[in-house]
Here is the input.
Amino acid sequence: MAVISPFRSVQYNPGTAGNLGQLITPPYDVISPEQQEAYYRANDFNIIRLVLGRQFPDDSPGNNRYTRAAATLKEWLAHGVLVRQDRPSMVIYQMEFQLPDGGSRTMDGLVVLVRVENYGGKTVLPHEKTYKGPRKDQLNLLKACHAHFTPIHALFNDRDNLVMEEYGRFMSGPPEQEARDENGTIHRTWAFSDEGAMRRIAGLLKDNSLFIGDGHHRYETALEYRDEIRNENPPPDLQGHEYVMMYITSTSHPGLTILPAHRMIKGIPEDNLRNVLEKLEPYFELEPCGFCCSSDQAAATNMIRSISNGSGPAGNFGMVLNKGKGCKVLRLKSFQAIDHLIDPSVPRALRDFDVTILRHVVVGYGLGLNADDPEGFIEYTPSVAEALRRVQDGETQVSFILNPTRVEQVQTAAELGYKLPHKSTYFYPKLASGLVLNCF
Here is the structure.
């Protein structure tokens, strides 16, 4: 049973903090070191100081990025840089954005508190694996600040659009917050505290499963934090640890967008790299492509077109090797021929997913890498041009270009209780950090 609750959100005070577009950032895990510094320069009150503070050689248990974030948060609340709203409310959050390959879309949903539930209970369902490092980092930040700075993105089934119709009537007036980020995405919010509407929305969602789209590390951090607090003796009177802030959107929303997370791999033994095409040739058609000598948008577009399968058979990938070793389009010859290379634990319904085939057959068998523990040797990007550039510049040894995982595939994996490989999805655009906060 999903327990949904309004809350007294914390937001920037524009009269004190300034232009909201200079205060927000994307989630911590997609911010590069160069972007981190740019956000620091953008505004003295930029949320980067809370979500991904600088680290220094002399950091200590008593003075580090987490303690500094907690002190900064306390100071901003005390001086009115951040203000808590007067009444518990649900917050409508809309994003208007451009697609990487052209066109525009708009997506909206609700920012609410959701009671933290263990996996396995069919209430909150994950779909991909996480890394230990980011979980530890986020737990340290949560314990220091007692706050959520970025909502977890979750999905729910609303085929009759009942939830969207319920909150949509509160979007008729001008938004309370509006900001344009550096990518051109416009972020808008409207808060409503109508008791009847909030009660009806909570009722519509109580028997619904919530599928985590983006924010698995933060949700698992919330689980661990909840359990730690529950074990305290005596337990605290305040119950903030029992809830986590989520942005929930309908799986049928026309603006819901998933991009592929292309793989950039380094740390491969040279013998493995030298033999990879020979090992894969029995299972894939290896088509040469001559457009990968460039990393411009035209080359990226050509690669996407070459591997696009629409709703057809899975198993099409772009593969670009460094040091001029070539560029290939891999097309799976027969799923039956590779089935024995996929771990028997993978459910039948998930064995023909692109991310499954890439993980077990191409990376695991072809490159001989431990695909179950890719931390440190696989990086991810939604940009084909970046994946091509990184391999051409010698920053990675090989890049793989994928088709996107579909929403229904995410749901299938979650409902089966099986976690897909790391970064199987890239929900787009990323939610803003600093637009809506939950402090408890």
Summary: The longest helix spans residues 216-230.
